Amino acid sequence: MSGSSVALMTLGLMFALMVLRIPIAIAMFVSGSVGYVAISGWAPYASFMNSMAFARFASYDLSVIPLFILMGQFATQGGISKALFEFTAALVGGLRGGLAMASVMASAAFGAICGSSVATAATITGVALPEMKRHGYSGRLATGTLATAGTLGILIPPSVPLVIYAILTEQNIAKLFLAATIPGVLAMVSYMIVIAIYVRLVPGHAPATDVERPKMQLRTVLGLAPIASVFLLVFGGIYGGFFSPTEGAAVGAFAALVAALVKGEMTWAKLRNSFLATAESSAMIFLIFIGADVMNSTLALSQVQHVLTDLIASWNLAPIWVMVAIVALHIVLGTVTEELSIILLTIPIFFPVVMGLDFGMPKESVALWFGIMILMVVSFGLLVPPMGLNVYVVNGLARGVPLGETFRGVLPFLISDFIRIGLVLAFPGIALWLVKFIS
To answer: Cα dihedral sign for 358, 359, 362, 366?
Structure first.
Protein backbone atom coordinates (compact mmCIF):
# COMPACT_ATOMS: atom_id res chain seq x y z
CA MET A 1 0.00 0.00 0.00
CA SER A 2 1.15 3.56 -0.69
CA GLY A 3 1.74 5.99 2.13
CA SER A 4 -1.36 8.00 1.19
CA SER A 5 -3.48 4.85 1.23
CA VAL A 6 -2.22 3.92 4.69
CA ALA A 7 -2.94 7.47 5.90
CA LEU A 8 -6.52 7.30 4.62
CA MET A 9 -6.98 3.84 6.14
CA THR A 10 -5.63 5.07 9.48
CA LEU A 11 -7.90 8.12 9.56
CA GLY A 12 -10.88 6.03 8.48
CA LEU A 13 -10.24 3.53 11.27
CA MET A 14 -9.92 6.36 13.80
CA PHE A 15 -13.28 7.89 12.84
CA ALA A 16 -14.91 4.46 12.82
CA LEU A 17 -13.72 3.88 16.39
CA MET A 18 -14.99 7.32 17.39
CA VAL A 19 -18.41 6.48 15.95
CA LEU A 20 -18.37 3.40 18.21
CA ARG A 21 -17.84 5.84 21.13
CA ILE A 22 -14.27 4.72 21.79
CA PRO A 23 -12.43 7.53 23.66
CA ILE A 24 -10.53 9.73 21.22
CA ALA A 25 -7.16 8.98 22.86
CA ILE A 26 -7.64 5.23 22.42
CA ALA A 27 -9.02 5.66 18.89
CA MET A 28 -5.94 7.63 17.82
CA PHE A 29 -3.57 5.21 19.56
CA VAL A 30 -5.09 2.05 18.04
CA SER A 31 -5.50 3.39 14.51
CA GLY A 32 -2.08 5.05 14.60
CA SER A 33 -0.46 1.82 15.77
CA VAL A 34 -2.11 -0.17 12.97
CA GLY A 35 -0.91 2.34 10.40
CA TYR A 36 2.63 2.47 11.85
CA VAL A 37 2.97 -1.31 11.70
CA ALA A 38 1.55 -1.38 8.16
CA ILE A 39 4.25 1.06 7.00
CA SER A 40 7.31 0.06 9.06
CA GLY A 41 6.65 -3.33 10.64
CA TRP A 42 6.65 -4.52 14.25
CA ALA A 43 10.32 -3.99 15.14
CA PRO A 44 10.44 -0.26 14.30
CA TYR A 45 7.06 0.18 16.01
CA ALA A 46 8.35 -1.48 19.20
CA SER A 47 11.46 0.72 19.14
CA PHE A 48 9.32 3.82 18.65
CA MET A 49 7.00 2.92 21.53
CA ASN A 50 10.00 2.23 23.78
CA SER A 51 11.07 5.89 23.73
CA MET A 52 8.06 7.89 22.58
CA ALA A 53 6.25 8.38 25.90
CA PHE A 54 9.37 9.43 27.80
CA ALA A 55 10.40 11.82 25.02
CA ARG A 56 7.00 13.49 25.16
CA PHE A 57 6.60 13.79 28.92
CA ALA A 58 10.21 14.68 29.72
CA SER A 59 9.49 18.13 28.27
CA TYR A 60 9.67 20.83 30.94
CA ASP A 61 7.27 23.04 28.97
CA LEU A 62 4.51 20.46 29.38
CA SER A 63 4.31 21.19 33.12
CA VAL A 64 2.56 24.47 32.32
CA ILE A 65 -0.65 22.54 31.53
CA PRO A 66 -1.38 21.03 34.99
CA LEU A 67 -0.24 24.27 36.65
CA PHE A 68 -2.73 26.42 34.73
CA ILE A 69 -5.43 23.81 35.34
CA LEU A 70 -4.64 23.88 39.06
CA MET A 71 -4.84 27.67 39.08
CA GLY A 72 -8.29 27.43 37.53
CA GLN A 73 -9.38 24.79 40.03
CA PHE A 74 -8.34 26.94 42.99
CA ALA A 75 -10.28 29.85 41.48
CA THR A 76 -13.32 27.62 40.90
CA GLN A 77 -13.32 26.08 44.37
CA GLY A 78 -12.37 29.34 46.10
CA GLY A 79 -15.61 31.25 45.54
CA ILE A 80 -14.04 33.93 43.35
CA SER A 81 -16.81 33.64 40.75
CA LYS A 82 -19.48 35.04 43.09
CA ALA A 83 -17.53 38.24 43.70
CA LEU A 84 -16.96 38.63 39.96
CA PHE A 85 -20.65 38.32 39.13
CA GLU A 86 -21.65 40.73 41.90
CA PHE A 87 -19.28 43.38 40.51
CA THR A 88 -20.30 42.98 36.87
CA ALA A 89 -23.99 42.88 37.82
CA ALA A 90 -23.59 46.15 39.69
CA LEU A 91 -21.73 47.60 36.69
CA VAL A 92 -24.20 46.75 33.89
CA GLY A 93 -27.15 45.13 35.70
CA GLY A 94 -29.35 48.18 35.21
CA LEU A 95 -29.26 47.84 31.44
CA ARG A 96 -31.89 45.88 29.56
CA GLY A 97 -30.46 42.36 29.49
CA GLY A 98 -27.88 43.59 31.99
CA LEU A 99 -27.59 40.42 34.05
CA ALA A 100 -26.92 38.40 30.90
CA MET A 101 -24.23 40.94 29.96
CA ALA A 102 -22.85 40.70 33.49
CA SER A 103 -22.58 36.92 33.04
CA VAL A 104 -20.53 37.43 29.88
CA MET A 105 -18.20 39.90 31.61
CA ALA A 106 -17.83 37.63 34.64
CA SER A 107 -17.01 34.67 32.38
CA ALA A 108 -14.33 36.70 30.60
CA ALA A 109 -12.78 37.78 33.90
CA PHE A 110 -12.93 34.27 35.31
CA GLY A 111 -11.42 32.90 32.11
CA ALA A 112 -8.42 35.15 32.74
CA ILE A 113 -7.38 32.86 35.60
CA CYS A 114 -9.04 29.60 34.56
CA GLY A 115 -8.14 28.50 31.02
CA SER A 116 -10.99 25.98 30.73
CA SER A 117 -14.24 26.54 28.86
CA VAL A 118 -16.27 23.89 30.68
CA ALA A 119 -15.05 25.01 34.12
CA THR A 120 -15.90 28.64 33.31
CA ALA A 121 -19.38 27.73 32.06
CA ALA A 122 -20.17 25.52 35.06
CA THR A 123 -18.78 27.94 37.65
CA ILE A 124 -20.45 31.12 36.39
CA THR A 125 -23.72 29.25 35.78
CA GLY A 126 -23.76 28.26 39.44
CA VAL A 127 -23.86 31.89 40.59
CA ALA A 128 -25.53 33.69 37.66
CA LEU A 129 -28.37 31.37 36.64
CA PRO A 130 -30.37 31.63 39.91
CA GLU A 131 -30.15 35.44 39.76
CA MET A 132 -31.21 35.56 36.13
CA LYS A 133 -34.18 33.29 36.82
CA ARG A 134 -35.17 35.39 39.84
CA HIS A 135 -35.19 38.54 37.72
CA GLY A 136 -37.41 37.02 35.02
CA TYR A 137 -34.96 35.94 32.31
CA SER A 138 -36.16 33.13 30.08
CA GLY A 139 -34.46 29.76 30.23
CA ARG A 140 -33.47 30.14 26.56
CA LEU A 141 -31.65 33.44 27.00
CA ALA A 142 -30.12 32.57 30.37
CA THR A 143 -28.70 29.17 29.44
CA GLY A 144 -27.75 30.21 25.89
CA THR A 145 -25.81 33.18 27.26
CA LEU A 146 -24.02 31.13 29.92
CA ALA A 147 -23.07 28.33 27.53
CA THR A 148 -21.69 30.84 25.03
CA ALA A 149 -19.94 32.95 27.65
CA GLY A 150 -18.19 29.81 28.88
CA THR A 151 -16.18 29.69 25.65
CA LEU A 152 -14.40 32.83 26.87
CA GLY A 153 -12.62 30.48 29.29
CA ILE A 154 -10.36 29.41 26.41
CA LEU A 155 -10.56 32.56 24.28
CA ILE A 156 -9.23 34.80 27.08
CA PRO A 157 -5.63 33.94 28.10
CA PRO A 158 -4.45 31.77 29.74
CA SER A 159 -5.90 29.05 27.52
CA VAL A 160 -5.02 25.37 27.82
CA PRO A 161 -5.72 24.67 24.11
CA LEU A 162 -3.46 27.60 23.19
CA VAL A 163 -0.69 26.24 25.42
CA ILE A 164 -0.96 22.89 23.65
CA TYR A 165 -0.79 24.63 20.26
CA ALA A 166 2.34 26.47 21.42
CA ILE A 167 3.98 23.20 22.49
CA LEU A 168 3.09 21.40 19.25
CA THR A 169 4.31 24.22 16.99
CA GLU A 170 7.18 25.41 19.21
CA GLN A 171 5.81 28.95 19.42
CA ASN A 172 6.22 31.49 22.21
CA ILE A 173 3.39 31.01 24.72
CA ALA A 174 3.54 34.62 25.95
CA LYS A 175 3.16 35.97 22.39
CA LEU A 176 0.23 33.64 21.73
CA PHE A 177 -1.46 34.92 24.89
CA LEU A 178 -0.98 38.48 23.65
CA ALA A 179 -2.35 37.56 20.22
CA ALA A 180 -5.46 36.04 21.83
CA THR A 181 -6.24 39.08 23.98
CA ILE A 182 -7.91 41.40 21.46
CA PRO A 183 -9.94 38.62 19.74
CA GLY A 184 -11.01 37.46 23.21
CA VAL A 185 -12.14 40.94 24.26
CA LEU A 186 -13.83 41.31 20.86
CA ALA A 187 -15.75 38.11 21.57
CA MET A 188 -16.91 39.44 24.95
CA VAL A 189 -18.08 42.74 23.46
CA SER A 190 -19.83 41.05 20.54
CA TYR A 191 -21.72 38.73 22.90
CA MET A 192 -22.91 41.75 24.90
CA ILE A 193 -24.05 43.46 21.70
CA VAL A 194 -25.96 40.31 20.71
CA ILE A 195 -27.76 40.35 24.06
CA ALA A 196 -28.64 44.06 23.71
CA ILE A 197 -30.11 43.45 20.23
CA TYR A 198 -31.85 40.18 21.15
CA VAL A 199 -33.77 41.51 24.17
CA ARG A 200 -35.13 44.33 22.01
CA LEU A 201 -36.03 42.30 18.93
CA VAL A 202 -37.43 39.31 20.84
CA PRO A 203 -39.36 40.69 23.82
CA GLY A 204 -40.30 38.54 26.77
CA HIS A 205 -36.91 36.92 27.34
CA ALA A 206 -35.64 39.61 29.73
CA PRO A 207 -37.36 42.23 31.89
CA ALA A 208 -37.77 45.67 30.27
CA THR A 209 -36.54 47.33 33.45
CA ASP A 210 -34.89 45.95 36.56
CA VAL A 211 -36.27 47.56 39.69
CA GLU A 212 -33.80 45.59 41.81
CA ARG A 213 -30.66 46.86 40.12
CA PRO A 214 -27.61 45.68 42.08
CA LYS A 215 -25.82 48.53 43.82
CA MET A 216 -22.12 49.25 43.48
CA GLN A 217 -20.67 49.20 47.00
CA LEU A 218 -17.19 49.27 48.45
CA ARG A 219 -17.56 45.61 49.41
CA THR A 220 -18.40 44.79 45.78
CA VAL A 221 -15.28 46.55 44.49
CA LEU A 222 -13.03 44.98 47.11
CA GLY A 223 -14.35 41.57 46.12
CA LEU A 224 -12.37 41.96 42.88
CA ALA A 225 -9.05 42.23 44.73
CA PRO A 226 -8.22 38.48 44.75
CA ILE A 227 -8.74 37.86 41.03
CA ALA A 228 -7.13 41.17 40.08
CA SER A 229 -4.09 40.32 42.18
CA VAL A 230 -3.71 36.89 40.59
CA PHE A 231 -4.10 38.28 37.06
CA LEU A 232 -1.65 41.14 37.57
CA LEU A 233 0.88 38.89 39.29
CA VAL A 234 0.82 36.23 36.56
CA PHE A 235 0.67 38.35 33.42
CA GLY A 236 2.57 41.28 34.86
CA GLY A 237 5.34 38.88 35.83
CA ILE A 238 5.37 37.14 32.45
CA TYR A 239 5.36 40.27 30.29
CA GLY A 240 7.55 42.17 32.72
CA GLY A 241 10.23 39.52 32.21
CA PHE A 242 10.28 38.37 35.83
CA PHE A 243 9.44 34.76 35.03
CA SER A 244 8.60 32.41 32.17
CA PRO A 245 5.03 31.27 31.36
CA THR A 246 5.68 27.98 33.18
CA GLU A 247 6.95 29.79 36.26
CA GLY A 248 4.04 32.21 35.92
CA ALA A 249 1.59 29.31 35.98
CA ALA A 250 3.17 28.02 39.20
CA VAL A 251 3.07 31.47 40.78
CA GLY A 252 -0.53 31.89 39.61
CA ALA A 253 -1.61 28.57 41.12
CA PHE A 254 -0.08 29.53 44.46
CA ALA A 255 -1.61 33.03 44.31
CA ALA A 256 -5.05 31.59 43.49
CA LEU A 257 -4.76 29.28 46.50
CA VAL A 258 -3.83 32.20 48.75
CA ALA A 259 -6.76 34.24 47.36
CA ALA A 260 -9.16 31.38 48.06
CA LEU A 261 -7.82 31.00 51.58
CA VAL A 262 -8.14 34.75 52.22
CA LYS A 263 -11.78 34.64 51.11
CA GLY A 264 -12.34 31.78 53.55
CA GLU A 265 -13.97 29.59 50.89
CA MET A 266 -11.29 26.90 50.65
CA THR A 267 -11.91 23.82 52.80
CA TRP A 268 -9.91 20.62 53.02
CA ALA A 269 -12.53 18.88 50.87
CA LYS A 270 -12.34 21.60 48.20
CA LEU A 271 -8.53 21.53 48.32
CA ARG A 272 -8.57 17.78 47.76
CA ASN A 273 -11.10 18.16 44.93
CA SER A 274 -8.87 20.79 43.28
CA PHE A 275 -5.87 18.48 43.15
CA LEU A 276 -8.00 15.50 42.12
CA ALA A 277 -9.71 17.40 39.29
CA THR A 278 -6.32 18.70 38.11
CA ALA A 279 -4.91 15.17 38.07
CA GLU A 280 -7.92 13.84 36.15
CA SER A 281 -7.83 16.63 33.54
CA SER A 282 -4.06 16.42 33.12
CA ALA A 283 -4.17 12.63 32.76
CA MET A 284 -6.86 12.95 30.09
CA ILE A 285 -4.83 15.53 28.17
CA PHE A 286 -1.59 13.55 28.43
CA LEU A 287 -3.33 10.35 27.30
CA ILE A 288 -4.58 12.24 24.25
CA PHE A 289 -1.00 13.40 23.71
CA ILE A 290 0.15 9.76 23.57
CA GLY A 291 -2.56 8.80 21.09
CA ALA A 292 -1.89 11.89 18.97
CA ASP A 293 1.86 11.24 18.92
CA VAL A 294 1.32 7.72 17.58
CA MET A 295 -1.19 8.94 15.01
CA ASN A 296 0.94 11.88 13.89
CA SER A 297 4.06 9.73 13.63
CA THR A 298 2.17 7.38 11.34
CA LEU A 299 1.00 10.29 9.19
CA ALA A 300 4.56 11.62 9.06
CA LEU A 301 5.83 8.21 7.87
CA SER A 302 3.13 8.17 5.20
CA GLN A 303 4.38 11.53 3.87
CA VAL A 304 0.75 12.66 3.64
CA GLN A 305 1.71 16.21 4.72
CA HIS A 306 4.01 16.56 1.71
CA VAL A 307 1.41 15.06 -0.59
CA LEU A 308 -1.18 17.48 0.76
CA THR A 309 1.18 20.45 0.38
CA ASP A 310 2.02 19.52 -3.22
CA LEU A 311 -1.65 18.97 -4.03
CA ILE A 312 -2.66 22.38 -2.68
CA ALA A 313 0.23 24.02 -4.53
CA SER A 314 -0.94 22.41 -7.80
CA TRP A 315 -4.35 24.05 -7.43
CA ASN A 316 -2.78 27.54 -7.56
CA LEU A 317 -5.23 28.83 -4.98
CA ALA A 318 -4.67 32.11 -3.18
CA PRO A 319 -3.30 31.38 0.34
CA ILE A 320 -6.31 33.02 2.00
CA TRP A 321 -8.67 30.49 0.36
CA VAL A 322 -6.56 27.63 1.68
CA MET A 323 -6.90 29.15 5.15
CA VAL A 324 -10.67 29.48 4.65
CA ALA A 325 -10.88 25.78 3.76
CA ILE A 326 -8.83 24.77 6.81
CA VAL A 327 -11.03 26.93 9.06
CA ALA A 328 -14.18 25.40 7.57
CA LEU A 329 -12.83 21.89 8.13
CA HIS A 330 -12.10 22.66 11.78
CA ILE A 331 -15.61 24.03 12.25
CA VAL A 332 -17.02 20.74 10.92
CA LEU A 333 -14.66 18.68 13.11
CA GLY A 334 -15.73 20.74 16.12
CA THR A 335 -19.24 19.35 15.79
CA VAL A 336 -18.08 15.76 16.34
CA THR A 337 -15.12 15.93 18.72
CA GLU A 338 -13.71 18.18 21.44
CA GLU A 339 -11.18 20.96 21.03
CA LEU A 340 -8.04 19.35 22.47
CA SER A 341 -8.35 16.29 20.25
CA ILE A 342 -8.84 18.45 17.17
CA ILE A 343 -5.74 20.51 17.91
CA LEU A 344 -3.56 17.48 18.64
CA LEU A 345 -4.75 15.68 15.51
CA THR A 346 -4.87 18.41 12.89
CA ILE A 347 -2.12 20.88 13.79
CA PRO A 348 0.77 18.51 12.87
CA ILE A 349 -0.92 18.02 9.47
CA PHE A 350 -1.98 21.55 8.58
CA PHE A 351 0.64 23.67 10.34
CA PRO A 352 3.39 22.76 7.80
CA VAL A 353 0.91 23.47 4.98
CA VAL A 354 0.06 26.92 6.33
CA MET A 355 3.70 27.78 7.01
CA GLY A 356 4.51 26.89 3.41
CA LEU A 357 2.09 29.52 2.07
CA ASP A 358 2.92 33.17 1.43
CA PHE A 359 0.56 35.47 3.33
CA GLY A 360 2.90 38.45 3.02
CA MET A 361 3.79 38.25 6.72
CA PRO A 362 6.77 36.94 8.71
CA LYS A 363 6.49 33.22 9.48
CA GLU A 364 6.16 33.87 13.22
CA SER A 365 3.19 36.18 12.59
CA VAL A 366 1.55 33.53 10.41
CA ALA A 367 2.02 30.93 13.16
CA LEU A 368 0.47 33.24 15.79
CA TRP A 369 -2.44 34.18 13.53
CA PHE A 370 -3.11 30.55 12.62
CA GLY A 371 -3.14 29.59 16.30
CA ILE A 372 -5.74 32.23 17.12
CA MET A 373 -7.89 31.19 14.15
CA ILE A 374 -7.83 27.57 15.30
CA LEU A 375 -8.62 28.59 18.87
CA MET A 376 -11.70 30.52 17.73
CA VAL A 377 -13.08 27.80 15.46
CA VAL A 378 -12.65 24.96 17.97
CA SER A 379 -14.52 27.03 20.57
CA PHE A 380 -17.35 27.15 18.04
CA GLY A 381 -17.73 23.38 18.39
CA LEU A 382 -18.47 23.77 22.10
CA LEU A 383 -21.86 25.26 21.18
CA VAL A 384 -23.19 23.21 18.27
CA PRO A 385 -24.72 19.70 18.21
CA PRO A 386 -24.03 16.86 18.47
CA MET A 387 -20.93 17.73 20.56
CA GLY A 388 -21.90 21.11 22.12
CA LEU A 389 -20.19 20.29 25.41
CA ASN A 390 -20.83 23.70 27.00
CA VAL A 391 -24.52 23.46 26.13
CA TYR A 392 -24.86 20.09 27.84
CA VAL A 393 -22.97 21.29 30.93
CA VAL A 394 -25.09 24.42 31.39
CA ASN A 395 -28.36 22.67 30.56
CA GLY A 396 -27.54 19.96 33.09
CA LEU A 397 -27.33 22.65 35.76
CA ALA A 398 -30.55 24.37 34.63
CA ARG A 399 -33.34 22.15 35.82
CA GLY A 400 -36.57 22.56 33.90
CA VAL A 401 -35.02 24.06 30.75
CA PRO A 402 -35.35 21.75 27.71
CA LEU A 403 -32.09 21.02 25.90
CA GLY A 404 -33.56 22.34 22.66
CA GLU A 405 -34.18 25.72 24.30
CA THR A 406 -30.52 26.02 25.26
CA PHE A 407 -29.40 25.18 21.72
CA ARG A 408 -31.81 27.81 20.39
CA GLY A 409 -30.39 30.26 22.90
CA VAL A 410 -26.87 29.98 21.48
CA LEU A 411 -27.92 30.56 17.84
CA PRO A 412 -27.68 34.40 17.91
CA PHE A 413 -24.22 34.15 19.46
CA LEU A 414 -23.07 31.74 16.74
CA ILE A 415 -23.86 34.43 14.17
CA SER A 416 -21.54 36.83 16.00
CA ASP A 417 -18.90 34.08 16.12
CA PHE A 418 -19.04 33.72 12.33
CA ILE A 419 -18.62 37.47 11.92
CA ARG A 420 -15.69 37.58 14.36
CA ILE A 421 -13.96 34.62 12.69
CA GLY A 422 -14.39 36.34 9.32
CA LEU A 423 -12.93 39.60 10.65
CA VAL A 424 -9.81 37.98 12.11
CA LEU A 425 -9.44 35.90 8.95
CA ALA A 426 -9.62 38.98 6.73
CA PHE A 427 -7.63 41.27 9.04
CA PRO A 428 -4.82 39.34 10.81
CA GLY A 429 -3.73 42.59 12.45
CA ILE A 430 -6.59 42.20 14.95
CA ALA A 431 -4.63 39.33 16.49
CA LEU A 432 -1.13 40.59 15.76
CA TRP A 433 -1.31 44.27 16.70
CA LEU A 434 -0.83 43.79 20.45
CA VAL A 435 2.08 41.41 19.89
CA LYS A 436 3.87 44.03 17.77
CA PHE A 437 2.98 46.83 20.19
CA ILE A 438 4.29 45.03 23.29
CA SER A 439 7.32 43.59 21.50
So the answer is: negative
